């Protein structure tokens, strides 16, 4: 991983909230503030930030208010509460801003192929050159394709979807499609259906729906339809590397369900299809659309080498490629470079199923696979709310808690959530029963993104099992109950709980799940505030007397409007109060004349009852569990609008959002707000 020192951030003077690296009149001895930056492709550059006027911050509610300092017109200072020092003493080591370059620089570069003997290295090299197994063993009689072990399925499927299969339908994210009417070849299907049909993701569901004897006939019939439609490899989506890898791995794990019938010819046909698929993957695995698809292909090659006769050279070849592909796909903190929690789940699922194949032949997987699996789990846990279900990030929905728990248990990894995933880009704060999640990194670069969203500086907030502030989510589920034409909107900045200017996205949202230009740099600073006004370097103070503060900014609107979006979030350590401030700070020489429209959106969780305040600045939120919260705007009125939220089954649920809109000058402005638990 490469690091560059960044120039010191701009000086701090009179402020309305905790220091946010801006200067105003009356500043005394300025100091530098520590932090770090995350850039999409290049080191961050120092930026001068200045705001002449700022709205006073809403009170935090501590015994003392450490966050404000007033300056009179004559320059004299009337200290309401002294500001804490932002840097250590001169004799202490100062903190320096850090810049992280994403992409290949974040990938694990020290994962080499597993150590093997000289003879095995020779076999692996020969197999990589394309020599078949028969050439590597010229005096051995060539065996027919056969499986040498039976795998115990580590991840049970959905019994309800399996019963729908037995009734003649695929069930994908709440949408039923008749098996008889399904196109198994030809034009593209909606992405969820493609993964279901061509990746054979329905086999675990069918196996979970009843005894094997009752399911074998259904499995043979659907597999026969697919083989008839795809007798040879072709350029259709059926032979996408990712789909093919998942299909081969699923065939191998659920082989007893496919090969338990009495038709010997069909069994032979299935085994030959497995062998032909493995040979195709050997030649085409590196042509995947993204690294996650390539990992699925390498895992299938490795599993085939483990479970099919004479597979030793293929296993060695697959292990080396798999470990290399995992190193290219995963960042140093364990998050996949697509920044997608669904991609994180898929990567863990692939490795869990591959480990089951190793267990079937009583062989230990390479230590690198165990290590990467232990790295993948903590970032996924970091995106779970108090109910144990997933947050809505990068197209994901609220995947149910039991599904996540089953996956984590099958992984065998016991760990805590990753609190500060600086490279994967998500910040997590837990305080009392509250959980705050913040997207504090640029969106994924195009070659990694599948359902990329322009969600930089969006946040989600939950208390206990109830979600108060959410993102819409669900773009990855489009094609089921969520229409495909809605996917583009669900990936937009306005579908996330953050600020937009003139309804433009902070990062351009393109078709096919890709992203264009926009946010290329994010600066983040995270600290603990004590009641006495100091910043704690370690543990917080007494319950209710401290808070966690995150300051972040992104440059997504600089090129178009010359404005930098900065967001400050402060969460009390008892979880009962979240206060924030969103600022637009002028940058460079872009036009500062004229007016622009700003919208600050807070999408609400489902089943929350709302009551508008008389002054128009507040809204009361009544939660299903009986809790009562109040949202207050510091200056602009709050309106209530319709919204949408995708649950973990891909179902769109109607909900509402709180919106603060304003016309502001292009010279910048700030918006303060408060979310407080009343009961």
Automatic annotation (TrEMBL):
Residues spanning the signal sequence: none
Heparinase II/III-like C-terminal domain boundaries: 414-673
Cellular compartments annotated: Cell envelope
InterPro entries attached to this UniProt entry: Chondroitin_lyas, Hepar_II_III_C
One family name in Pfam for this protein: Hepar_II_III_C
Region described as Disordered: 1-54
Source superkingdom: Bacteria
Gene3D superfamilies recorded: 2.70.98.70, Chondroitin AC/alginate lyase
Protein name: Heparinase II/III family protein
Source organism (scientific name): Novosphingobium pokkalii
